[in-house]
Amino acid sequence: MGEAIRKEPMTSLLRIRVSVLAAVLFLCPSLTHAAILSFSPASATATVGESVTETVLVSSPDQAMNAVSGTISFPQDILQVVSISKTNSVLSLWVQEPSFSNANGSISFAGIAPNPGYIGGRGQILSIQFRAKKQGTAEIALTSASEVLANDGNGTDILTATRSATITVSAAQAPPPQASPSAPSQTASLLARITSSSHPDETKWYALSHAVFDWTNAQDVTAVRLGYDKDADGIPTVLYNDPISHKELDLEEGIWYFHVQEKGTGGWGPVSTFRVQIDQTPPLPFPIIFLNGTTTAKFGDTIPVQFAATDELSGIDRYQVIIDGKESVLGAEEGSRPYAIAGDSGTHALFIRAHDKAGNAASTEGSFSIAMKESAKVSFFTFGWVAINYLTLILIALAILGTLFFAAWYIRVHFSAYRRNLNRRLGTTHTRVHKEFDNLKDAITEEILALEQAKSRRSLTREEERLISRFKKLLDQSEQAIEKELEEIPR
């Protein structure tokens, strides 16, 4: 029961959780009737510093109910919560442990009454002990977030009304007049300031049963009275005429109050009280519930589990979820929600440890399996077919390249042979052309010489002179043209 709580505990998710649990545990359909949440007593009075206990009651006389949740508001400037008790509650399974925040002036709870549920006019839910802080009128009321669910298998909300309570706080009675005007202040100064090295925080729970208390006695203290009990307003009765300032006690589990009262020259001073909360019992054994009824999932799927633990004193603080040595830490409220676990292919060890607010722990373990990925099986064969296809393509490419290389080699070889043959034939032609031209040249040259010899015997005609000149010119031109054409023929 810590200070930090959520203002609206009955969120939609919590309501669904309670409704589903109610439907699963208690499948008993019936007609819907009315239920009322109220406080007892409806009105009370107290003076500043006194405590008042209010009891939250549920009335469902016509139909069995199996779940109650609510948020209670109170003026934090007038009242403060000292403790909350679940003793004699008709609810035995707590979806959300009762918790309070004096800073916000709120109290939250959510619980279940197992089948057959509760039917009646004054079912006790909680007892809340308030301490009056200052003078005023304090209204204690249930907010609109409160619900009462029927035991009908559907989680039907049958709450029709809530009734508040009023606590009237009056000023503390003035101390009786003293003969000496300094006496009241001297008595007021006798309020001891108690500390504990073993249990330093009054709001926290501890697993240590040996409690150590220290306080400083005011000047002129002649005696002290000590006491310890489970009453925040208890009166110490053990007298020490030699005023001590240190005490050690071995306490049982529960909430204890250590009281110190000092006596001075003006009489006994006010009682100083220190609160100690002890819880040495680990949470109750709890199972791991596989919500789908199986511990095996396909690869890539998750397995929803639930592992709500219960602690009867301090309440659950957190969970450790360990899968194959890998740890996750979850809040207390997450244990009662579906939690998804997952892993790689194979069997996995699941270990869950529940810690209460005093540091005690209870553990449970299980295992789950994840099937091998089917696509992994297929991929081996797929890879084989792909490899064969690639090999076929490579062989075809090599065959094409081989054919191209062979064709190139074949063309080169035959072209070289053709070229050699052509060069040989061209060489022969070249020789024959030269030979025939040389024969023609010789014949023409002989004719020109004959004409030139005839010139010595007689005068040549103009026509003969012209022919000699023309023959020489044509021979020179023809020889140059033939040489040029033969040179341009490729070899």
Low-confidence stretches: 1-14, 20-32, 178-185
The level 1 CATH classification of the largest domain is Mainly Beta
Indicate the radius of gyration in whole angstroms: 56 Å
Give a short account of the largest sheet. 11 strands, mixed
Separation, N- and C-terminal Cα atoms: 112 Å
Overall shape: it is: rod-shaped
Alpha-beta content class: alpha+beta
What is the CATH topology assignment of the largest domain? Immunoglobulin-like
Count of domains: 4
User: What share of the residues does DSSP label as strand, in percent?
Assistant: 35-45%
Give the number of helices: 4
Keyphrases for this structure?
27% helix; Immunoglobulin-like; alpha+beta; five-stranded mixed sheet; 4 domains; 491 residues; 4 helices; eleven-stranded mixed sheet; single chain; disordered N terminus
Account of the 3D structure:
The protein has 491 residues and is of the alpha+beta class. The protein has 4 domains: 12-170, Immunoglobulin-like; 187-278, Immunoglobulin-like (Sandwich); 289-372, Sandwich (Immunoglobulin-like), CATH 2.60.40.10; 375-488. Helix content is 27%, strand content 38%. The protein contains 4 helices and 27 strands. The chain has helices at residues 12-25, 183-188, 374-457, 462-488; strands at 35-40, 43-47, 51-73, 79-85, 93-101, 106-112, 118-132, 136-142, 147-150, 159-162, 165-170, 194-195, 205-206, 210-215, 223-229, 238-240, 246-250, 254-264, 267-278, 289-290, 296-297, 303-306, 316-323, 326-331, 339-341, 346-356, 361-370. Strands 1, 2, 3, 4, 5, 6, 7, 8, 9, 10 and 11 form an 11-stranded mixed beta sheet that branches. Strands 13-19-18-15-16 form a 5-stranded mixed beta sheet. Strands 21-27-26-23-24 form a 5-stranded mixed beta sheet, with no helix packed on it. A hairpin with a 2-residue loop joins strand 18 (254-264) and strand 19. Helix 3 packs antiparallel against helix 4. The longest helix has 84 residues, at 374-457. The protein starts with 11 loop residues before the first helix and ends with a helix.
